[in-house]
Each structure stands twice: as structure tokens, then as C-alpha cells.
């Protein structure tokens, strides 16, 4: 399958226009006319990912976090980032990144993770938006549907302690950090994967508990004093299932080999 054909399908699933303005998504390295027989999915394009891709003759890496994010003036072997980019280019490995457009798309990562918790109730899309957009690769207009946070309104309230256990079981993790009383009861659950703390203020009056990653001390202290409940799942831990989601999505249109790469946790417990 040609890379440009894959890009057309990914554009349909995760329209770049629903990404945040500061984001950098789409084809970041590579020749869109190349044949793609092997794809590797990952959260971050690490050295391990690149070595694994070279060893397995991977043609395309699809990452959640962009391999090129902020501007830089040179690509040399003097920096880790430069060495990684050079190695990708030298080995003709393309990289396509799907970041906040994967989070916000309907049936994207926020939905995928919320559904993993297997909670019974109504799911609400916060700041839902719909529009028509032209897919220049497929040469047709498409309906685009996205939204920011997800809120689950449970059929019956549950104890926070029980919710924490459900989260850990669903994500296969041993612990989460939380702010609040674990004996509190919650019914309205907000979620933004990754470092989504900036969104919690937009929906604070609509939820009983907010789930995300990378919560900072002062914002968590403020929430505690205001009587709000927060759960820090972890950045990697809230997003690593992007890999599983992408394999499911691409299985519908790609017949080549797909490799799932899961990186080790960045932080260790001492």
C-alpha cells in the first residue's frame, strides 16, 4: 500500500484540523509515494523504537507524540534528537504522528480509554464540533466530528476507591495518584488523556472527578482546598493504549504487517 493511501485513511479517522493549533501532526518524515509493507505503532519515537524498526525493516512508524515538535535550526549528530532524525532518514523510515487529533476525534483515544473502564452510563462530548472538510488525498468532502474532554455520567454513583481499582485494572497499572477522599462517591467522571490538566477548569462544574496525567503540585493543592477530586493516571499510562487503538483502526484497511511497541515506564518507584 502506498504511504499516501494510508495518509488518506488516517486523515479520515483523525482530521488534522481538530488538533490543537500548537501541535505538529501528520507526515513529519518520509516520501509519501513509497510502498509500505510494515508499520510500527508507538507512543514516542525513542531510540529503541528506531532500532526495532531498522531490525524489522519497518517502512512507517505511526507515533502519538510528534517526532518533530518545536522548531530547530539544524539536524546533526551532536544531539540525541538530531541523531534519531538522521537515523530515520538514512534508513528511509517514514514517521506519521497523530497527537491531539487522535485525542479529540470521535472514537479516538479519549473515547477508547473511557470505554476501557467499562462504566455503565451516558457519555458526553465536551465542546463537540462538527464540520465538513475536503480530504485532498481522497479527493472528496468528509464529515468531521470531534470534541475535547469526555464525561461519563454513571447510572449509579460509585465510591472513588472502587473507581480507582477499575482504572488500574483496565489500564494494567499498579497505582494511580489521586486528590480527595477515596470514600467519596462520584457519578460524573471527566477524562482527558495525556497532560490534560488545562481542560479540567472548563468542566469543573460538570463533574465529580477528573482523570488525566501529569498533574502539578499547585494545581492539585488548589483542587484539594476547593474540595474537588482529581486522579493522575500518568501520562504514558493514560496514552500507551494508542498503540492498540491504531492496530484496530488500521486492520480495517491495511493488509501488511503491524508491530506494536510498548515503551517501559519513564518513572520508576524506589
TrEMBL record:
A divalent metal cation 1 binds at residues 65, 103, 235, 239. A divalent metal cation 2 binds at residue 64. Keywords: Metal-binding. The keyword Metal-binding applies. The keyword Metal-binding applies. GO terms for molecular function: metal ion binding. It comes from the Bacteria. One of its GO terms (cellular component) is cytoplasm. Belongs to the GTP cyclohydrolase I type 2/NIF3 family. This is GTP cyclohydrolase 1 type 2 homolog. It comes from Leptotrichia buccalis (strain ATCC 14201 / DSM 1135 / JCM 12969 / NCTC 10249 / C-1013-b).
Amino acid at each position: 500500500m502506498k504511504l499516501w493511501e494510508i495518509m488518506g485513511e488516517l486523515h479520515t479517522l483523525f482530521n488534522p484540523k481538530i488538533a490543537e493549533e500548537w501541535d505538529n501532526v501528520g507526515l513529519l518524515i518520509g516520501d509519501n509515494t513509497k510502498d509500505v509493507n510494515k508499520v510500527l505503532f508507538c507512543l514516542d519515537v525513542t531510540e529503541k523504537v528506531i532500532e526495532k524498526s531498522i531490525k524489522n525493516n519497518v517502512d512507517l512508524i505511526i507515533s502519538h507524540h510528534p517526532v518533530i515538535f518545536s522548531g530547530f535550526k539544524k539536524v546533526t549528530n551532536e544531539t540525541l534528537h538530531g541523531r534519531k532524525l538522521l537515523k530515520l532518514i538514512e534508513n528511509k523510515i517514514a514517521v506519521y504522528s497523530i497527537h491531539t487529533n487522535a485525542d479529540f476525534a470521535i472514537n479516538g483515544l479519549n473515547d477508547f480509554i473511557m470505554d476501557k473502564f467499562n462504566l455503565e452510563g451516558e457519555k458526553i462530548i465536551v465542546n463537540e464540533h462538527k464540520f465538513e472538510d475536503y480530504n485532498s488525498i481522497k479527493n472528496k468532502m468528509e464529515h468531521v466530528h470531534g470534541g475535547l474532554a469526555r464525561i461519563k455520567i454513571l447510572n449509579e454513583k460509585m465510591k472513588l476507591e472502587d473507581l480507582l481499582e477499575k482504572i488500574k485494572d483496565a489500564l494494567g497499572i499498579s497505582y494511580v495518584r489521586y486528590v480527595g477522599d477515596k470514600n467519596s462517591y462520584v457519578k460524573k467522571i471527566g477524562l482527558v488523556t495525556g497532560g490534560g490538566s488545562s481542560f479540567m477548569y472548563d468542566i469543573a462544574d460538570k463533574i465529580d472527578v477528573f482523570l488525566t496525567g501529569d498533574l502539578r503540585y499547585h494545581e492539585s493543592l488548589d483542587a484539594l482546598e476547593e474540595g474537588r477530586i482529581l486522579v493522575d493516571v500518568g501520562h504514558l499510562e493514560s496514552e500507551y493504549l494508542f498503540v492498540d487503538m491504531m492496530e484496530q483502526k488500521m486492520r480495517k484497511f491495511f493488509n501488511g504487517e503491524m508491530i506494536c511497541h510498548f515503551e517501559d515506564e519513564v518513572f520508576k518507584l524506589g
